[in-house]
Design a protein that fits this description.
The structure is a homodimer. Chain A is mostly helical. Chain A contains 7 helices and 3 strands, in the order H-H-E-H-H-E-E-H-H-H. Chain A binds a DNA duplex through residues 20, 23-24, 27, 31, 36-39, 53-55, 63-71, 74, 86, 89-93.
Chain lengths: 145, 145
DNA sequence: AAGTTTTATATCGTTTACGATGCAAATATA
DNA sequence: TATATTTGCATCGTAAACGATATAAAACTT
């Protein structure tokens, strides 16, 4: 068989696996707070800028609104955010942090550090991570039309 | 706020996004053959070595059997594989390619090349891809206990 | 102003993922 | 050989993802 159809030669499989495993590594740090990883991502977006319409959150995470809407509804019923109709544009749903959602920022402040140290190894060090970031950023830029 | 809680500083978010976008890029190349990306991964595993028990396929893909089992059942009902009880070990389900599943190998032989060219850019070139592979492999190795 | 198009969000259906749990066959141990 | 443990797979419940489609509000066009 051709080498290019071998699993070990696939970039996508590596990304897919690394992504899943790293997300799994977040699990014990988030589940205690009742959070999933995508919900944690939404919180990070809102911690940077509160009161965002659904569309802006989706764009920031490069997700479709039909993924984000149910995610936000779950977060609303968990008391992490509120969703209310936009004043100027009645089509928009403005998402805002609740005190509970805001309060998690402090409680989760140690998470990135813990995860960071979980991936440090031979080829991935503070020196080489910028290279990795650049490559992933370029791939992402190339793939989002 | 601390920089380490910013989305743009997260490795996991990059991997998660790059993985999703690259998987999406596979979609138009696979959907015509009735395949999803995880199903394509299973085919790659079986093209390398046919007649594998569920467990070996799951291990190769670093997935849990409770993910792979329903995936294989769908592939069975799509006529891509057969599943039959192991002769020596009655607990095992041996998965085998059908002629249809085997035949897809040729039809999909151009997929890796197309996807490869889809990610080539400034920082990701035939020269630098080995570096990227090494970093992702090390991360994966570190994270799978 | 009436009609058309676009935009923002939601709904629906299908397929992953995965933690938790169940069950039967194989293996190890008493 | 009887019992306990492990192993391989399956089932269940929940939460993403995402293509396709629907709906209402806004913006644009005539």
């Amino acid at each position: 068989m051709q080498d290019n159809l071998k699993l070990d030669n696939q970039l996508c499989f590596r990304l897919y696996t690394a992504s899943r495993l790293l997300t799994q590594a977040y699990h014990p740090l988030l589940s205690g707070h009742g959070l999933t990883y995508p919900q944690y991502l939404v919180l990070m977006v809102l911690w940077e800028k509160d009161a965002m319409p659904v569309n802006d959150i989706a764009k920031r995470l490069l997700l479709e609104t039909n993924t984000v809407t149910p995610l936000l509804k779950r977060m609303e019923s968990d008391g992490l955010v509120t969703r209310s109709k936009g004043r100027d544009d009645a089509r928009q749903m403005i998402v805002r942090l609740t005190p509970k959602g805001l309060g998690l920022q402090e409680k989760l402040s140690c998470v990135p550090e813990k995860l960071g140290s979980a991936v440090i190894c031979d080829s991935v060090t503070p020196d080489t991570i910028p290279t990795l970031f650049k490559m992933l950023d370029d791939i992402i830029l190339k793939l989002k039309r």
